[in-house]
Amino acid sequence: MLPVNQKLFFYGVAVLLLLFTVSLARKRKLRENYTLLWLFISLVLFLIIGEYKMLTGLAGIFGASPNSLLTFCGFVALLLLILQLSIMNSYQAMQIKNLTQKISLLEQKFYQNSLLKIKNKVKISS
Amino acid sequence: MKQDKVLISIPAFNEEDNIRLTIEKVKEVCKGKGYEIVVVNDGSKDRTAIRAAKSGATVISHPFNMGYGVAIQTGYKYALENDFDLLVQIDADGQHDPKYILKMLNTLRQPGVDGVIGSRFKVETGYKAPIIRKIGMIFFNFLVNLITGKRFTDCTSGYQAYHKKILKFLTSDLFPCDYPDADLIIMLYFSGFNLVEIPMKMQENATGKSMHGSLRKNFYYVAKMCLSIFTIMLRRITGLATQ
Predict the structure, then answer these.
(1) How far is CA B203 from CA B92, B135, B180, B206, in A?
(2) Any chain B CB within 8 A of the CB of A51?
(3) What tens digit of pLDDT does each residue of B182-215 get?
(4) CB atoms within 10 A of CB A120
(5) Of residues B51, B208, B29, the one with CA closest to residue B103
(6) A105 touching chain B per CB within 8 A
(7) Which of A94, A97, A105 lies nearest to residue B60, judging by beta carbons?
(8) Reading across the β-sheet that carries B86-89, which strands appear in turn?
(9) Could you tell me which chain B residue has the CA closest to the CA of A96?
């Protein structure tokens, strides 16, 4: 069992995370897919705090203390999250590159067409 | 006989001091041949774009600096979109002598040749590279030769020419935009394209500027290139096509 003061503290952290996530989603600073992810993380936090016995049992299987198991799982989860963000980032970098090239090529085409139009106008007026 | 539509692509970043002279030299060499010169201005902060346009080149400007690899790929995309048959890529800093353009094009027109690389080391030209860069060049040449079984002497050369059948590949997302050198040669080789080298003399960069400038960048370049080659090999071994 977790001591009550610790339990309250962790619940506080979980509630804050939940509220912060909802607030970011409300302000459209966090996309829905990430909002879902962070809501899931805060729910997991609630679950761990409420069902600490489950964690103790699980830790017993591995012969580790609940705290070590929790730290390890948290660390792995964060690593996976960073990896997922890196994948997203790489994909978006590629998209930005392709978009930038497309814009540059279109801009050049637009400029050339404008020049042609001007030349034609000059021809017609003369 | 139908004349080849040729594009001379010049990637440039902050080259206001050299761009005019480079374009003039290219124009002199290609006089009367109707070749188009395109300058890919890679987000320069100076007057590179204005000077290039005033010198008679077509200018494509990136809204911000994207790097050398992206700039040369924009040139390939322009060539593909406008149906050019052949493309020659030349640096804006004056290192590459435009007098070799015609030789490159003649080599490229030979049957079975898809790309031409200008080599500083195919014959002794007296080109002197800084020692760290030289070690890198020797290492990557060795690696490319080992993997391809062909003899490349200058796989970091930016003076290149390509046939239009290779352009589709070069404009795809497979193109390694982050320093496309040795990894690109290996990739093209695995995709069945035939690259040949021709000897040429190159000037050492008068400003001493290089895209591999700092020690940190040099280390990054070596690590990135090794990783890139490794992943290309892995893709090939695991049957993940490169084309």
Answers:
(1) 12, 19, 21, 8
(2) no
(3) 999 999 999 999 999 999 888 766 555 565 567 7
(4) 10
(5) B29
(6) yes
(7) A105
(8) B58-61, B36-41, B6-12, B86-89, B160-163, B115-119, B195-199
(9) B66
- Predicted TM-score of the model (pTM): 0.84
pLDDT in tens, B11-47: 999 999 999 999 999 999 988 888 999 999 999 999 9
Say yes or no: A83 contacts chain B, CB-CB below 8 A. no
Q: Is B235 exposed, middle or buried (0-12, 13-18, 19+ CB in 10 A)?
A: middle
For tokens 């690590």, name the residue.
B223
Q: What is the mean pLDDT of residues A104-112?
A: 94
For A97, which of B61, B66, B78 is closest by C-beta distance? B66
Burial class (CB in 10 A: 0-12, 13-18, 19+), B183: buried
Candidates B41, B64, B65, B66: best to mutate against A (most CBs of A within 10 A) is B66
Q: Alpha-carbon distance B39 to B19, whole Å?
A: 9
Q: Closest chain A residue to B64 measured between Cα atoms?
A: A100
Candidate CATH numbers 2.60.40.10, 3.40.190.10, 3.90.550.10, 3.40.630.30; the one for domain B6-241: 3.90.550.10
A23 Cβ contact partners less than 8 Å away, ≥ 6 residues apart: none
Q: Which value does ipTM take for this structure?
A: 0.83
**Contacting residues of A for B70, CB less than 8 Å apart:** 97, 100-101
Token pair for B33: 């041949």
C-alpha distances (whole Å) from A93 to each of A85, B44, B177, B194 are 12, 20, 11, 30
Q: Where are the domains of chain B?
A: 6-241
Under a CB-based contact definition with an 8 Å cutoff, are residues B86 and B3 in contact? no
Residue whose tokens read 């790097």: B67
Interface of B with A (CB under 8 A): 40, 58-64, 66, 70, 73-74, 77-78, 81, 173, 177
- Cross-chain residue pair A108–B58, CB shorter than 8 Å: yes
Tokens of A33: 């897919």
Query: Taking a C-beta distance cutoff of 8 angstroms, is the pair B61, B10 a contact?
Result: no
What is the interface size between A and B, counted as CB pairs within 8 Å?
35
